[in-house]
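If I may wish for something, please walk me through the protein I am sending here so I can picture the backbone:
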Amino acid sequence: MQIVTKRVYEKASESDGRRVLVDRLWPRGLSKEKVLVDQWAKEVSPSNELRQWYAHDPEKWEEFKKRYFAELDSNPNAVTSFLNEIGEGTVTFLYSSKEPELNNATALKEYVEIRKG
């Protein structure tokens, strides 16, 4: 499996493979008809409390990942279901944050790659 992260506002391409929105909230200003999303994985996105606490503060990044991974570990059924749904091949984790590196899609990619070994 190859995981790529991409801002949901960027144009879709064939190389994206399966497109999975990994945000808890639907992206502002985008209609569901205009966004090519194969799956909206709210169940494995950060909780509202964690998302609000983090607030894209770079100084909180490592602690955010630690807390987010703990949330995922505490919900093994959702994680297993998510991993089964995304399957093999290329999958693109879509996020709405303006921050290209320190966002939940990047953290989820790291988590999945660790889990998949």
Notes: Residues 61-73 form the longest helix (13 residues). The helical segments are 48-54, 61-73, 76-86, 104-116.
